[in-house]
Amino acid sequence: KQWYQRRVPITAGKDEHSDVRLNIISNLDSVNKVIGIHQLSQSLLPAIVELAEDPKWRVRLAIIEHMPLLAEQLGVEFFDEKLNSLCMSWLVDGVFAIRSAATSNLKKLVSIFGLEWAQNTVITKVLSMARDPNYLHRMTTLFAINVLAEVCPPDVISKFMVPVISNLAADAVPNVRFNVAKTMALIVPSLDAQTVEFQIKPCLSKLYDDEDMDVKYFAHEALVLCH
What is the pTM of this model? Predict the structure, then answer.
């Protein structure tokens, strides 16, 4: 019986049907108690990686949703070495639902691993995407900031995020610019009065003079929150 218990989770992780493999991962806590964390990490990693790159976007979405559980069970060292790069790659996935889920996933990971981990491994990488040639990826930077700002203290937002957001206000793509205004509206309540007065409001005032009507609208909405 013991041999059977030890073999089932491992071989099932290699099952050709993605739903079976996902089921094993979704019950990771129970599986961990049976076979132990070391054997678990070594056995399931190939299945996790394969699912993470599955051509079916709903399978990729499912593994993203299991990522916080994997993070908790496998620990920060294993996660950083084996899974962090996967989480970052989802931020530039070709499917919007995946990019959106990937940003929400970041917030959950910060809650698990802590702010110091986020500053060392995630925030810098996310902010660097603001220079990506693909405007969808630049927008993903803003979406990621939206969720990360919920778990980051005001000084981190002001020091690291606000300069990047401000730079994107001059983006050539209107969709990026109006998302800058929307992001600023979200983070204003978390910022000190000086940052709002001297960094946020001047930027929003320029956006309010934008020729694009959507940019003007969202800039106005954000400016109202600044007063």
Answer: 0.83
